[in-house]
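Hi team,

Below is the intake form for formyltetrahydrofolate dehydrogenase from Phocoena sinus. Please confirm the fields before the structure is written into the shared record.

FORM ID: S-0412
PROTEIN: formyltetrahydrofolate dehydrogenase
ORGANISM: Phocoena sinus
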Amino acid sequence: MKIAVIGQSLFGQEVYCHLREEGHEVVGVFTVPDKDGKADPLGLKADKDGVPVFKFPRWRARGQALPDVVATYQALGAELNVLPFCSQFIPMEIISAPRHGSIIYHPSLLPRHRGASAINWTLIHGDKKGGFTIFWADDGLDTGDLLLQKECEIFPDDTVSTLYSRFLFPEGVKGMVQAVKLIAEGRAPRLPQPEDGATYEGIQKKETAQINWDQPAEAIHNWIRGNDKVPGAWTEACGQKLTFFSSTLSTEGLVPEGETLPIPGAHRPGVVTGAGLILFGNDDRMLLVKSIQLEDGKMIPASQLFRGADSTGLELTEEDLVTAEAVRGAWKRILPNVVEVEDSTDFFKSGAASLDVVRLVEEVKELCDGLELENEDIYMATTFGDFMQLLVRKMRGDNKESQCVIDHVEKTVNKLTLRMPHQLFIGGAFVDAEGAKTYETINPTDGSVICQVSLAQVSDVDKAVAAAKDAFEHGLWGKISARDRGRLLYRVPPSPSTRPDPTGT
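The structure came back. Fields below:
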């Protein structure tokens, strides 16, 4: 079938590639004009394939389709328009031109959440089920007949990014290809959308994303995750606008002890803890926020809100400087409008977007022997100088956030001084048991007391289980491939007891 692809983004690129793989002829790609000197991924790929690419800044003027645009489109002879993701308004002269019409991808289960911020509102409303719809375009706003729908479960801590990456993107690409196949085979349904349950919500913008504190913790959590990462749920506190990210209701075992954060309108002040910022709903339930963006745009771990800026920098070795130049080259490729990447160059202020974050993470992995970065690392170190400091710390394995303070017990045995931890290890830190309870550990050879060891209580076990659950669900280790986990384990030096005896005795 002859297809015109109208849209943009990596999603549009994937749909385009899969349609060509299925044997369809893409006669033209219509995408957005270049931004800051960067072509959209869909147009970039089509151009490399020799497919005609058109980048009209607009399709109509004063409510009328532009004649030259319509003529250019009609000359291609498309039999179907496929709109995987399109931010432009396409006139009906184009929509209804092909003999098969036009199909559009929408990231919600229509008729629920019509509008441009459908994923955001799916989470904000706390929907238990999400999904996408492929529908026949008409002159309404997401009101066309249904062709195909697929649904998925929404997890309690899903964000726009996780829901999109886990289901809406990969399954959406497959869904678009399946829809085109049904049309080609003459089996595509046209089911009128029911009006029962239909909703329409406006575009989420920063000015409308302020948190309303007079609601339960779950509703506040849904508001924060529904605005994560764009536009970002915010509140006034500490004399500035704070934007919250990475919210969770998994607070089992967390104790709200730490420095308080007064928040105007909040039921209770927030509490900055080692795990992050604990917030409260008007039902006194807790939620935890792990990342905060300050008013100047800097992203920090929520646990560091009241810490002063760390002015100490690592001195880069010759090897580090070579790596820095390679990484600087990656920044230049991603930021073509930046003449020279200086230490003060800000990744996002130089025109980078969320797609560029993914690209930078992948390029760093290639350049730094498979080093794993989180997208959040880029948001927390936005200037090149800060980014290289973060990168070098990770490569050296001395990330300050991961260092533990250990209260050792020392004992001299056979002319050797042994240093042993004696506390509980919970959530990446050695801590005393509740009530500082301990028990004696005995040397079986002579019955003497070696030291006092923390005696875990039920509450300590609850904290340990909660910390393990959080690490399992949100920690970096589970996201690393088995090959990379093995590589990291081989870098761990053996303990003295496992080293071979060079004397052979």
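SUMMARY LINE: The radius of gyration is 28 Å.

Thanks, M.
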